[in-house]
User: Fold this.
Amino acid sequence: MDSTVISLRERTRTDTRQAKPSWLKVRFPAGERYHHVKALLREHALHTVCEEARCPNIGECFNSGTATFMILGDICTRACGFCAVTSGRPANGLDWLEPYRLARAARTLGLDYVVITSVNRDDQPDGGAAVFAACIRTIRRENPRCRVEVLIPDFMGDRAALQIVVRAQPFVLNHNVETVPRLYRRARPKARYQRSIELLRWAKEMDPSLLTKSGMMVGLGETREEVFQVMADLRGAGVDLVTIGQYLRPSEKHLPVERYYEPSEFEPFVEKGRELGFLHVEAGPLVRSSYHAHRQAGLESAVGGGS
Assistant:
């Protein structure tokens, strides 16, 4: 095992007591625009992954007038060990007015770039793919200049569901692998690594012009070599953009942080991305899948890094 990996048993005892490194500390979200965005989301009965997943960048993003919308409700049918979103069995069906509320909110905010993600809805035959497609089309109809990035679940490997989303022509199609294959049973017990890789491969096959993207966390006990292999697998599936950030434990009920990566330790991932031929790699302690998404998608040939 890589000497940099701290034992899970040791980290489990100390994780809840140790202070976060200085580079992971962010200001408490505040500001007039931050509160305006929160009020707008409540007014339109919309959810954001920024709030539900307790993203550390929420203050920066809300104050810049951006948010990652979370559709299909706020109850996820899976219970991943790292995720703060509430899990259970949704009591309600799909909300077909959600695409219209989302489009109105995006127009009110004056957004030119919208990111849409969702909870897993394994209770639905298509996993909610049709709602994703409706959101893309409605936003484009309301604001033709607005580009839409979607961060989709794996749809249980349903190729037909994926095709529904691809045919709606998002600007970027993102699906996160989250971690290395060895840790899936512990971190993503209802997911399958190879299924996620194949989903991304299928998307590129369905529309070769579509920008595809994936992301993962470090700090769960993986080695650097395992991360490099995931990056190679993603590039082999035709993925264009990759994000890599530090895992932060949402609560004591979630998986412990095995270790905190120094900011400089993300640089080899950027270098590896350049070597593999990705269009862009966003890597850093506070990087999340949709962080600076508009900037990532706008870079056509350069590989960069940052947090």
Notes: The two ends are 27 Å apart (CA to CA). The chain is about 35% helix and 15% strand. Strands lie at 47-48, 68-71, 113-118, 147-151, 172-174, 211-218, 241-246, 280-284. The first helix runs from residue 8 to 14.
